[in-house]
Amino acid sequence: MAKTSLFGLRQEVTIFEYERGLLYENGKLIRTLEPGRYQHWRWENVQITKVSLRQMSHVVSGQEILTADRVEVRISLVAQFMVTDPQLAINSVENYVDQLYQELQLGLRDLVAAKTIDQLLEARATLGAELLNQTAPNTVAYGVTLKRVGIRDIVLPGNVRNIMLKEVEADRQGRADLVKARAEVAVARARANTAKIMSENPNAARLQELDALVQLAGKNGNVVLLPNLADMLIPRPAVSSGKDSGESSSSDHES
Q1: What are the φ and ψ backbone dihedral angles of 41, each rounded to 5 degrees?
Q2: Residue 127 CA to its chain's centroid (Å)
Q3: Where are the domains of the chain?
């Protein structure tokens, strides 16, 4: 802002380090002013326009866009930019911030319209970079350098959100069922291996029975009766068939 001095006859303008000034005389651009203090007489037809060179952020509010599969989404952006050429920024366009806003809107519409809803959600992390590469060359023409573009929000219609929630739930249920099935297969294999070991080693089965009895006996209130402990520790002899017994008796009778 210009200050008045010397009884109101002179005006003073200070250009800060982060600014540049454009000096106009009789409506014609004379030169770019570096940081410093400048004065001119009030009757001189002089105007100084200050332009900030600091990095700025601009929010592109949500706009409703149709995807390639005709799903309406609402997307908002955040753009970081800075003026690198004050003369172009002021003289080539009416308002460089509004121009940047329109560039981002048009670029976003082109990108979203070429993607399905699934592709759009998968490419959310890279969508800002795509928009940056597409828009940045256009902003250089009016003295603005686009530094970064990020996706702020993607809002889906209610019915689409419900469908996706069901898909996520079904996917999680399927994974849980798969884990459960794998556990059941592992248990079945362990039981099969145990049964094989027991069939090949009868004594191991007897030891397992004893272990189960010891655990039962260790609990209060349980009474374990063992009629003949030796029968559990010593394998019983095989019982001879009736035919063999008959033959033995016959042989003894003949002798």
Answers
A1: -75, 150
A2: 14
A3: 3-52, 56-156
**Average pLDDT per 10 consecutive residues for the chain, totaling 255 residues:** 59 92 92 91 86 93 84 90 96 94 92 88 87 94 94 75 59 73 81 75 68 69 59 54 48 45
- CATH class of domain segment(s) 56-156: alpha beta
Alpha carbon distance 169, 132 (integer Å): 35
**Rounded Cα–Cα distance for residues 14 and 36 (Å):** 6
Task: Enumerate the β-bridge partners of residue 40.
Answer: 11
CA torsion through residues 84, 88, 94, 98, sign? negative
pTM as predicted: 0.60
> Are residues 113 and 66 in contact, defined by beta-carbon separation less than 8 angstroms?
yes
Q: Is the dihedral of CA 183, 187, 188, 193 positive or negative?
A: positive
Please state, in angstroms and rounded to a whole number, the distance separating the CA atoms of residues 81 and 57. 6
Q: Helix/strand/coil (H, E, C) string of the chain?
A: CCEEECCCCEEEEEECCCEEEEEEECCEEEEEECCEEEEEECCCCEEEEEEECCCEEEEEEEEEEECCCCCEEEEEEEEEEEECCHHHHHHCCCCHHHHHHHHHHHHHHHHHHCCCHHHHHHCHHHHHHHHHHHHHHHHHHHCEEEEEEEEEEEECCHHHHHHHHHHHHHHHHHHHHHHHHHHHHHHHHHHHHHHHHHHHCHHHHHHHHHHHHHHHHCCCCCCCCCCCHHHHHCCCCCCCCHHHHHHHHHHHHHC
